[in-house]
Sequence to fold (72 residues):
Amino acid sequence: MIIVNLDVMMAKRKISLNELSDRVGITPVNLSILKNNKAKAVRFSTLDALCRALDCSPADILEYLPDREQAE
Fold:
């Protein structure tokens, strides 16, 4: 399972959803979907824009957690 830690990076950078939305060019609704782990996919161009705006790497935003079924 992939976890999106966008809210953590936003808090570290002290940036609001609306400000990040303006910087990245994504609607606040779509950014909220991503932030709340409701997104099914993310484009590399979106990930690139987020990393640029937050001055971070993809690993700071995305985290991999093995599913329980796979771990057993």
In short: Residues 44-54 form the longest helix (11 residues). The chain has a mean pLDDT of 92. The domain at 2-71 is CATH 1.10.260.40 (434 Repressor (Amino-terminal Domain)).
